[in-house]
Write a structure and sequence with these properties.
Length: 216
């Protein structure tokens, strides 16, 4: 259990550090033969396997209630994909070392990356009016997997949860809804009022400064 937790947090930390490195990296693509020195050419060859450019995603999920629930929905879909990994192995009697499991994970990795980019574009670009094709493919795969799990493992997924699991999820839902209500009905409007008041005060200061310059 502890090894699994350490692996999860270690992967999260490594992913964050990788993103920070790629964000701070300078992307300068030049012709290989125009780079002086063998070391520079070797670094250029290695850079071929890095991204062509870098775009930082700012989801802004705490600034807008629609974005908040959209991001929560995306996280829920990802967790269902993860859960289906174990359910499918159980209900279809697929051994863990089987290549089907690795192949599914490999496909989901690249499909998920494209889908996330499409979803971010849909949420951030006002000119984008529909989901991307890969997002719809991911949703269809998820629905198909859930139907397989329900059909062949209904007795497994309908078993009652232990009491401590029920208590945990009830507390989680209560805290989640309570924080959402507090953030979007109290904290965020108060922050916006403070920011607008500060901007109004600064505009008045500018007017007073210009008026004093004219009088002088």
């Amino acid at each position: 259990k502890h090894d699994g937790i350490n692996a999860e947090y270690g992967g999260i930390w490594l992913g964050i550090k990788t993103l920070e490195f790629l964000e701070s990296k300078t992307y300068d693509w030049r012709d290989l033969w125009s780079i002086p020195g063998n070391r520079g050419k070797f670094q250029r060859i290695l850079s071929q396997f890095t991204p062509h450019s870098w775009t930082k995603f700012d989801w802004g999920y705490t600034e807008d209630v629609k974005r908040w629930f959209a991001v929560v929905g995306i996280c829920t879909i990802i967790m269902i994909f993860e859960l289906n990994t174990f359910y499918l192995k159980a209900v279809l009697w697929i051994p863990p070392p089987n290549l089907i499991n690795a192949g599914r994970a490999f496909v989901m990795l690249f499909m998920g990356a494209v889908s996330m980019r499409e979803q971010y574009e849909y949420m951030s670009n006002p000119l984008c009016k529909r989901f991307g094709q890969q997002s719809w493919v991911a949703v269809c795969i998820l629905v198909t997997e859930c139907m397989i799990v329900i059909k062949f493992g209904y007795e497994t997924i309908t078993k009652p949860f232990p009491a401590h699991i029920v208590i945990f999820w009830v507390l989680f839902v209560v805290i989640f809804l309570g924080w959402s209500f507090w953030n979007f009905t109290y904290k965020l409007p108060r922050r916006k009022r403070t920011a607008s008041g500060r901007e109004l005060s600064e505009s008045y200061d500018d007017v007073d400064l210009r008026a004093s310059k004219k009088s002088n």
